[in-house]
Description:
By secondary structure, chain A is of the alpha/beta class.
Amino acid sequence: MVTPQKSAHAPTISQVADAAGVSRSSVSRAFSKPHMLREDTVQHILSVAGKIGYVPNHTARALSTGRHGNVALIVPDIANPFFPPLIQAAQKRADLSNFCVFLGNSNEDRGQEDKLLDRFVSQVEGVVLVSSRLSEERIKYHAARRPLVLINRDVSGIPRVLIDSGKGVAEAVRHLADLGHVHIVYVSGPRQSWSDRQRRKAVNEAGATHGLKISMIHAAVPTYEAGRQVAPDAVATGATAVIAFDDLVAQGIMAGLAQQRVKIPERMSVVGCDDVLGAATYPALTTVSNRSIEAGETALALLFELLRAQTMSDMRHVLSTELVVRDSTAAPALRQLP
Amino acid sequence: MVTPQKSAHAPTISQVADAAGVSRSSVSRAFSKPHMLREDTVQHILSVAGKIGYVPNHTARALSTGRHGNVALIVPDIANPFFPPLIQAAQKRADLSNFCVFLGNSNEDRGQEDKLLDRFVSQVEGVVLVSSRLSEERIKYHAARRPLVLINRDVSGIPRVLIDSGKGVAEAVRHLADLGHVHIVYVSGPRQSWSDRQRRKAVNEAGATHGLKISMIHAAVPTYEAGRQVAPDAVATGATAVIAFDDLVAQGIMAGLAQQRVKIPERMSVVGCDDVLGAATYPALTTVSNRSIEAGETALALLFELLRAQTMSDMRHVLSTELVVRDSTAAPALRQLP
DNA sequence: CTGTTAGCGCGTTCAC
DNA sequence: GTGAACGCGCTAACAG
């Protein structure tokens, strides 16, 4: 039998005070502002507290100070491999400042995101919204209630960290042009995605610069399966190289191509985005770095700065990306066999 | 400029009371026990509250009631694809009961895990520990402070949810035996892992049952890279099939084999575990299902039951697994070409 | 340096 | 059905 002693009330500050023969404020200080007490009284109090098994009550402290030592981190889909490293980094950074993080999963749903925010607001000091699906209006509403930092969402007036995949994608286009490709296809991602807009724009612009023909195909959702399904369409465009919205889609495309016996990279070059797969595909995927870890760290650093300064000029931190060349790209076959 | 109005205090229950011309207790009741008030006064209070923008203060309520509406979920490595679905499921289940979840990442470090627990204890009503690295003693200590449920850790007396991969692994061995394999190799995972012990035991026992020769190889960490590195060793054993600790290792092995031009499944069959990759490998990986989603749901259901009942008989919920046959296993080549 | 006095915002007795 | 008083555990003034 398990009998959690909920009733066996945890020791309070008063009990420690009595046992140590001091006032409650002294006990409080011994824990939060030891430098205000004499060295030996601190030791005495701490030892008595330890004996009794006293642990400061976080909730009571928060009610009194308004400081909870918690931040909220909301992502659209924790199962998407893009986010875990970001979350981990954010967590690590928070821990450094002795903060705990509430993780929220909006499930790509703005209603859910709104609801989470409401539930969190009264127990956190700040919020980080990653790839928010909220309207600008709602974002501003929440930002007015609590310090708030955005990742991969560009709302002027709200501190934000942007991963600019544009540069990396442009490099990818150039890389392909250098290899001798003259026709490439971009497989786009979610319409509402800020990132997709960046990438599409970069493909078009860089394509124009290098005089390439650009085709566009749309993958409804950024998943392996969606990628697999559009693979034939990609081949049908006549392009000799494909740039996918992200690595998952790229991986699906590679599988689809393999099914059709289209050799990679000989007959078709493939480029991913976000580098979430590492070299774990075969052939190893050429992709665009993501810097999501730095994004997580930076967002929290920004948030803590906001908390400290109480005010902050319109911050817009952009992280650049670059191409990571592996084995899924090569010169097009036709050029090699003149 | 951004100026979060920390000082623009959120509306309190008193302000609502004044504005609505009722006492504070009435406002309190309107939110927590509406049935104790007349229908129209509830409506009135609620509408006034909405107009003012009042939101009940979670912290104050928790201090008063001892109920926070939060649970802690601690995992060893959020970036391991095994956990996100579990976390997501747990979150969904918690949301159903209007609970928020604190996510903790122990980073495979028991010290960190202990520290997280201490930080969480005073702001959560219960805890779920996934694949805990803590000693039994510490687990029992924490379980005595708060209702606690374990996932993939078997400590008698503590409610626990176990994913028994043993059955699925046994099926895998049998599957290979049926295909005609007579010598297989198991690539093991972390020594401290409860799951690895289950799997190794199952391989040995099922191997004996079917009269197979079993070799053992150890991958220091369960990663793609570790798998890739041991691939040659797996070939060197002379086995015609390999069962890997998990899908990541299996994927690494597949890459390593491909480098050596060892065809899969013709020259070597590969079986993974946990089914975290879906069919996203090429060839699609035969693996053992994981049921981590149910584990997450069940653990939270158990926890809420514990919270409700205040006591619970020694619960040990085990989830069985099964083999998922895809394309990475086949009859050994030697048998096919007599 | 240390003790005293007020709250933080809310839920919960009790009377009315 | 509704209001007044008290307490949850702690910290922030203010004394001394």
